[in-house]
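Example protein was shown:

_____
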Amino acid sequence: METKVVQVRGRGTVTLPARMRERYGLTDGDPITVVDLDGVLVLSPRVGLVPKLAAEIERLRTQAGLTLDDLMDGQARERRSL
């Protein structure tokens, strides 16, 4: 467990240390859930499942050397065989 002290700035802005942002893959504009546990604030990154899956599919597609047309052709063939 890592503990860091951060300051609340104007308009309630809190800057997370770079190491923590990198660890959780947080970039500008990413949503974070804040939970108030009766005096203890818990910050939790909200990573959308769909963008995460889309990025993984794109990574695998690129790694396999497939184009989007290749994927669409395969899908069309699959439908015809049903």
Q: What stands out?
A: Strands lie at 32-36, 41-45.
